[in-house]
Amino acid sequence: MLSALNLPFAALLAGIAFLSPDLSAQTAPEDLGAHQAGWSAADFWDNINGRGHVRGRVYYPAASAGLDARPDYAGGPYPLIALNHGWFATPENYHQLSQHLASWGFIVSSIGTETGFFGSMIREAADSHAMMGWVETQSNTPSSPFYTLVDSDKLGAIGHSMGGGSLSYMMGLEPRIQTVVPMEGFIDGLGFDSQGLINLREFTGFYEPIHAKPSSNSCNSNGCCNTHHLCRGPRIRQLETKDCGGSWRASPHRDVA
Predict the structure, then answer these.
(1) Model confidence at 193, in pLDDT bands (50, 70, 90)?
(2) Which of 146, 190, 229, 235 is 20 to 30 A from 251, alpha carbon to alpha carbon?
(3) Which domains does the chain carry?
(4) Which residues contact 55 (CB under 8 A, 6 or more apart)?
C-alpha cells in the first residue's frame, strides 16, 4: 500500500484507465498491480526531431523487479505512456510513480533531458516525443529486449508541473496520443496565443488534469486556483480569455488532498 500517495496514484490511473485492460480487471489502483516492474536506461540519438543526444529511463512490466530485468513478454503488448518531469527534476524523482504504472501494465517512457535551471517545455516535449518513437522502434526490433512490448495503438502522456505544461506541445507533435494527464500542469510561459494552447483547444482525446486540493482562499468561484498551474477545466480549448476570471467552464476534475 502506498499510504501517503494513495489518492494521486488512484486519480492518475483513473485518468489513463481506458488504455489498460489490467485496470478494467482490478479495482484498487492505489495498490500495486499484478506485474513486477523493471527499468532500463535509454540513451540514443534523436532521429525524429533532430535534438541530438537524448536520455531517460524506460519502465516496463517484468518477470522480476529490478534494473534491466527480463520483460514480461507474455502479458504484452502494453500501452506506452510518456512521463514528462517537472522543473529541475529527473526520472529518478518519479521512480516510484513509474514503477507503479509499470506494475499496472504500462510501458513508461520517462524523459531525462531539460533538467537544469533553464529547462524548456518545448524542448522537453520534443525530446519526450523522440523517446516514445525510440521505444516504439525498439519494440519493432527483434534484437531489442523490448521487442513486441509496445501496443502502438494505445499511447498516452502524463507530466508534472513544467512537464504537465509541456504536454500541450507534445500532443501537437504526436497526434496518436489518446489521453493526456497533467499533474499540477504549469501554464505560465505558454502565452495565450502559443502553439501549446492552440493544441489544447484542438485536442480531441481525453484530457484529465490532476491538482492538489486548493485551500478555501486560493481558488475563485470559477475554479481558477492561481496563474501558474492549471487547476480546473479539462476542456481548456473552450477558454475564451487568457486570465482566470469568468471564462473557465465548469467541468469535472480530480482533486488530490
Answers:
(1) low
(2) 190
(3) 3-256 (3.40.50.1820)
(4) 41, 42, 43, 44, 112, 113
